[in-house]
Structures are given as C-alpha cells and as structure tokens.
Design goal:
Helix content: over 70%
Number of strands: 0
Distance between the termini: 27 Å
Strand content: under 5%
Oligomer: single chain
Number of domains: 1
Shape: elongated
Order of helices and strands: HHHHHH
C-alpha cells in the first residue's frame, strides 16, 4: 500500500507541476499557443486532429489523459524506487534519469502509437524545453515525493 500511495502522490503532484509548466511556458514561447491548445494537443492522442476543433471538452479530455499518464508514471517510479534503495538515497539523480526516460518514452513510444498528427519531431528549442520540464518539473519532484512516502515510517538506516 505504501508503494501505491507513493506512486499516486508522485504522479498527482508532478503531473500538476508539469501541466502548469506546459500551459505557462509553451504559450509564452510559441506564438499562437494557448493553454487550451496545449491541453487539446494532449487530447489529440486519442482524438487526432479533431481535438483542435473540440473546444473546452477536448481540453478537459487532454487534462484527464495527462493526469492518467502522470499517475501511471508515478506508480512505475514508486515501484522501481521501492526495489532499489540507492534510488531513494540518490533521489535527485533518480528523478533526473526518470525525467529523461519519461520524455523519450513519450516521444519515441507513446506519441508514435497515438493519433497525434506527427511532424518531424521536436526542434532544438522544443527538445530543450521538453527535457527541462520533464527533468526539473516532473522527474525530480516525483522522485522526491515518492521517496518521502516510501521512507515515511520505515526503519532508519543502520548507523
């Protein structure tokens, strides 16, 4: 049960931080992007190009899908950290590696399998922003939170 709590907390918190960053950063960096468009781009994974015409309902679907994905990643992280004690001690490194892995898993596995209209892939600016958000805003906080829940109430390490 501790692993589930750790995973849910890590997924919810880092998912919230991630989506706040996405709907803030991308509209600031890319003209024509809005928070609604960012959320619709997530919904396009299941709706395809129609997500852009779906208005607020598509945006809310995107938000729900975002949190579903974040929860799954949080649970995976917590399960992995529960089995590898060094990942708990080195949680900043764990979060960094996790964030990079999540970014590339999304780019190379999830997006190609989805209905997202695919272009050439991210340019250098999008790659840098995406990696920074996935590491600093998603991965490291997720590892910190998972570690907190996994070690709370556990026996202290031997001196």
């Amino acid at each position: 049960m501790r692993i589930v709590k750790a995973g849910l907390a890590a997924g919810l918190a880092s998912g919230a931080l991630d989506i706040i960053a996405a709907v803030t950063v991308y509209p600031a960096v890319y003209s024509g992007s809005t928070p609604i468009r960012v959320l619709q781009s997530v919904a396009s994974g299941v709706q395809g190009a129609a997500a852009r015409e779906g208005g607020v309902p598509s945006a809310m679907l995107g938000l729900a899908l975002h949190f579903l994905i974040a929860l799954v990643f949080g649970l995976v992280l917590a399960a992995a950290m529960s089995r590898l004690a060094v990942s708990q001690r080195l949680w900043p490194l764990t979060g960094t590696v996790f964030g990079v892995c999540v970014y590339f898993f999304m780019q190379k596995v999830v997006l190609p399998l989805s209905m997202v209209p695919m272009g050439q892939g991210p340019d250098a600016k999008a790659l840098a922003i995406g990696l920074a958000i996935h590491v600093l805003i998603f991965g490291i906080p997720a590892a910190f939170i998972a570690r907190h829940f996994l070690t709370r109430g556990a026996a202290p390490p031997p001196a």
